[in-house]
Amino acid sequence: MNYTKILEEIKEEVAPLIGKGKVANYIPALASVPNNKYGIAITTINGNCYTVGDAEEEFSIQSISKVFTFAMAFKSIGEKLWQRVGKEPSGNPFNSLVQLEKENGIPRNPFINAGALVVTDSLIHNNFNPKKSILDFIRKLSGNQQINYNTEIARSENEYGHRNYALAHFMKSYNNIYSEPDELLDVYFHQCSLSMSCVDLSKAVLFLANHGVVPNTDEIILTTSQAKRTNSLMMTCGMYDASGDFAFRVGIPGKSGVGGGIIAVIPGELGICVWSPELDEFGNSLTGVKTLELFTTKTGVSIF
Ligand code: GLU
Fold first, then answer.
1. Which of 258, 269, 137 is nearest to 204 (CA)?
2. CATH assignment at residue 183
3. 18 assigned to some structural domain
4. 270 conformational bin, left if phi > 0, alpha if psi -120 to 50, beta if neither
5. How confident is the model at residue 303, as a pLDDT?
6. Is 258 a catalytic residue?
7. 35-91, pLDDT tens digit by residue?
8. Could you tell me how far CA 14 lies from the centroid of its own chain?
9. In this structure, what is the dihedral angle of CA atoms 55, 9, 255, 244, given to the nearest 10 degrees?
10. Ligand 1 midpoint to CA 65 (Å)
11. Do 41 and 197 touch, CB atoms closer than 8 A?
């Protein structure tokens, strides 16, 4: 497969979409990202990397971090995690409070904000230094020791994070958050603030394309079954309230963030990351979704 040619072709075909979405503007540090940035990176499980555009440039990974914290929690807590968080698509916006009340403080899935807060809370509960262990985990998976938190973004998220505070306090009232909301939100805003490039992320997600094992080191991150379940969750819940549309159009598991990044995997083949900051009405990268749709169409690979 000539990935370089395919990526170049896609870059050209999606160019007219730039200018049709809206860069996230709920914090100044995200609002100031140039709207015309665009990069794709693919890393195959046999170690080849293909890129186009701004694939080496770092951006704010935001909700993509939820996949990595989930993997850490699933590895250490296992099935008990499901006592505190569900596995159904929410059919509601990612930061919705409404469903939580009807469902007694148990979030629908680990990839909406409430679910990700429970996951991060479980890391705090099981670990003395979650900020360090999240960073170590990400650096190890991507093979890049330079990756770091963007403390300015984390601070800004905190300043405008009233809804996330509300979610944490609300779940604490149902005894589904064990730590103090201030401590929890500090870790959560830091994980969202991680700065990574498409290349870093295409490598970091590779264990999910390889039955839970990091291909070049053979380190087991998740069991085969856990990796399958994580991919299933990405497929059904990874793209906010447009997960069904993404599954229909793209046909592979993916997770997006409001920084404009999307990670996705083709099991047995590769990890891919696309970045384009303008978002559609659901909060997914407008050009990013189209890019992945074209990728699975042109290559003919998907999970179906
Ligand atoms: N830090 C953002 C929030 O929790 C993450 C948003 C996202 O990427 O979905 O509101």
1. 137
2. 3.40.710.10
3. yes
4. beta
5. 86
6. yes
7. 999 999 999 999 999 999 999 999 999 999 999 999 999 999 999 999 999 999 988
8. 22
9. 170
10. 10
11. yes
168 pLDDT exceeds 90? Answer: yes
pLDDT in tens, 213-265: 999 999 999 999 999 999 999 999 999 999 999 999 999 999 999 999 999 99
All residues at 6 or more sequence positions from 200 whose CB lies less than 8 Å from its CB, including other chains: 58, 142, 144, 147
| Known active-site residue 65 | no
Q: Domain residues for 36?
A: 3-299
Pocket test for ligand 1, best of 23, 153, 258 (most atoms within 8 A of CB): 258
Tokens of 219: 């380190």
The answer as to whether 304 is a domain residue is no
Position 107 pLDDT exceeds 80: yes
Backbone torsions φ then ψ of 192, nearest 5 degrees: -65, -25
43 is written with which tokens? 């890393």
Residue found by looking up tokens 């604490």 in the block: 172
| DSSP code for 220 | B
Give 6-56 as a 3 state SS string: HHHHHHHHHHHHCCCCEECCCCHHHHCCCCCCCEEEEEECCCCEEEEECCC
Assess contact for 205 and 257: CB atoms under 8 A.
Answer: no
Q: What is the rounded CA–CA span in Å between residue 111 and residue 27?
A: 21
For residue 97, the model assigns a pLDDT of: 87
User: Residue 257 Cα, ligand 1 centroid: separation in angstroms?
Assistant: 7
Ligand 1 atom, smallest distance to 164 CA: 4
Please tell me the distance from the alpha carbon of residue 11 to that of residue 127, in angstroms, as a whole number.
Answer: 42
If one counts the domains in the chain, the total is 1
H helices of 174-242, where? Answer: 181-193, 198-204, 206-209, 224-237
Testing ligand 1's pocket by substitution, the residue of 64, 66, 113 carrying the most ligand atoms inside 8 A of its CB is 113
pLDDT for residue 94 is more than 80: no
